Amino acid sequence: MGHWLERNIVEPGKLPLLLALASFVLTFVVTRVVTRLIRAGRGPFGNVSAGGVHIHHVVPGVVLVVVGGFGALASRHGPGSGVCAVLFGVGAGLVLDEFALILHLADVYWTEDGRKSVEVVVVTAALVGLVLAGFAPFGVNGVSTDELHDRAAVAVSVAANFLFSLLALSKGKARTALFGVIVPLVAVIGAVRLARPGSPWARRFYRRRPRARARAGLRVYRHDRRWAVPSRRLQDWIGGRPDSQDTRVPQRQ
Q1: Domain range annotation of the chain
Q2: Cα 82 to Cα 62: distance, rounded to the nearest angstrom
Q3: Torsion angle of alpha carbons 226, 232, 234, 235, nearest 10°?
Q4: What is the Cα 208 distance to its own chain's centre?
Q5: Three-state secondary structure along the chain?
Q6: Which residues pair with 53 in a beta bridge?
Q7: Which residues contact 20 (CB under 8 A, 6 or more apart)?
Q8: Quick check: 39 and 240 in contact, CB under 8 A?
Q9: Per-residue pLDDT tens for 190-236?
Q10: β-pairing, 49-50 with 53-54?
Q11: Where does the pLDDT of residue 70 fall: very low under 50, low under 70, confident under 90, or very high at 90 and above?
Q12: In Å, what is the CA distance from 165 to each residue of 26, 102, 190, 206?
């Protein structure tokens, strides 16, 4: 394990990225636990206010992202880079946990629109994890011929998966495209199946194919009917169940 970590994480310079990812995920988990306790009226936690203004945790998150980002650029080597990576990861976790609030400029944290924050966090963690698992083919000293061949194969595989994922994304299958970057078979399936109605692919290639449009609409209906409930339950388990009514409060612009 130590040799693998040294060759694939430390030597290519990925240790700060690993620290940032770990702190990012941990911050999101802790933040969601705290906010759910506040929502339930349990524990010693409470909302932070100053002068009657509710201070969302995206505010300290932005500060930490700025400090960690500029600090990482200033100290690319040594322990300082690790510290800055942790600060950046914590800040990014706080910011993206309230991504939906930034997107809508409204307090939609516990509404249906607030689910976008959970989706963005999962997407970000998955993509950064993919970069870590990609085993950079460059920047490692003393690589044997077999290792170079293996790393080249990994790079080609990742590039092919990325192209299939882009194709799936053009067909309106964002989640399939995301997981396709990690699981090649998912990307291939998403790329070859019918596009979702209204997607760029459907608008371009189904415009004069009424049968294809009808089949695509029927497939989407059956898919959403089958997977909508499990997907919502998973999101509720990760981020908490939204309020039954939309009680968003517009933010000052």
Answers
A1: 143-253
A2: 19
A3: 150
A4: 36
A5: CHHHHHHHHHCCCCHHHHHHHHHHHHHHHHHHHHHHHHHHCCCCCCCCEECCEECCCHHHHHHHHHHHHHHHHHCCCCHHHHHHHHHHHHHHHHHHHCHHHHHHCECCCCCHHHHHHHHHHHHHHHHHHHHHHCCCCCCCCCCCHHHHHHHHHHHHHHHHHHHHHHHHHHCCCHHHHHHHHHCHHHHHHHHHCCCCCCCHHHHHHCCCCHHHHHHHHHHHHHHHHHHHHHHHHHHHHHHCCCCCCCCCCECCC
A6: 50
A7: 85, 86, 88, 89, 92, 128
A8: yes
A9: 888 888 888 888 888 888 888 888 888 888 878 777 777 787 787 77
A10: antiparallel
A11: very high
A12: 28, 27, 8, 20
So what's the pLDDT on residue 134? Answer: 60
For residue 136, pLDDT over 50 is answered with no
